[in-house]
Amino acid sequence: xxxxxxxxxSPVAREYLTYILTSDPAIQVVGTANxxxxxxxxLRHNKPDVITMDIHMPIMDGFEATRRIMETVPTPIVIVSGxxxxxxxxxxxxxxxxxxxxxxxxxxGMNHEAFEAGSKELLQTVKLMSEIKVVRRTARERAFAPLPxxxxxxxxxxxxxxxIGASTGGPPVLQKVLSGLPxxxxxxxxxxxxxxSGFVQGFAEWLSGAAHFPVHIASHSEVPLSGHGYVPPDDLxxxxxxxxxxxxxxxxxxxxxxxxxxxxxRSVAQVLGPSAVGVLLTGMGRDGADELKAMKDKGAITIxxxxxxxxxxGMPGEAIKLGAATHVxxxxxxxxxxxxxxxxxxxxxx
Length: 350
Description:
Helices cover 35% and strands 19% of the residues. By secondary structure, the chain is of the alpha/beta class. The strands form three sheets. The protein has a seven-stranded parallel β-sheet, with helices on both faces. Strands 2-1-3-4-5 form a five-stranded parallel β-sheet, sandwiched between helices. β3 (50-53), α3 (62-72) and β4 (77-81) form a beta-alpha-beta unit. The protein is elongated. The chain starts with a strand and ends in an 8-residue tail after the last helix.
């Protein structure tokens, strides 16, 4: 039985979420709270497997509640968002920085055509997140450190694109990696992050705030620009064609996902071969693992996140087992390596 605490300031929404969650015989709601203070009090007496967290609440909001929970009684937290407004999305990603694992939209009303799909996504997310063992967060982040001399690579003039894939736990890692890259990065960065529908625009804006360069929602057939990042729109695969140009596709999901990391990495392997870097970050399952191996076999430089820094080591761990990674590094090491690989590509600028 998966024990859940529902944190939501609206009594109607609280009752509605409890109804959906308890419709699954594997889930038990063991407590509800209408703000973060109440949630922390409940946690003194109950140890749930998952907490569903609203963002905008009185007294203590979802971001602050997430931060305090992860610093005191680490528990898997799923943000359940009732809005895709700018302030809600910004606060949602701040909560993910603080340790929340996933975000889902609150399912629409029972008479809505999307009720069944929304309820299924919520239930599936809660079940998946209940399996993750989270660790205590501290207020102090690990500082960026230079790579050991043995690992520091020489700049590679062949590199045209950096391709990054991530899933559970990915947003704060992406934030850390992108923030460690130089302002005028001489290559584009293509990013596939598994994230709930409706949050892509906010995700791109949030990453832009962390990086020293803009991150956009990609358009089909556009030429990716150096010093820019790109994420696919909702429910479309993103890859590359010769040029290189960005390709968006509604081909069937891969590994149950669209966009999938597999689609991006496979196209990069086929089109760019040794002229690319592939990076596979924290996430459940094995999306992108085989395709990172394909990139390596084509001569690309490939990097997998290490187990210690991964929330879930599924995707990078599977890649490492395959021998797909030429380097295994924590986020700050990944940023340092990428910066070193493309250093001076544009004639001396950094």
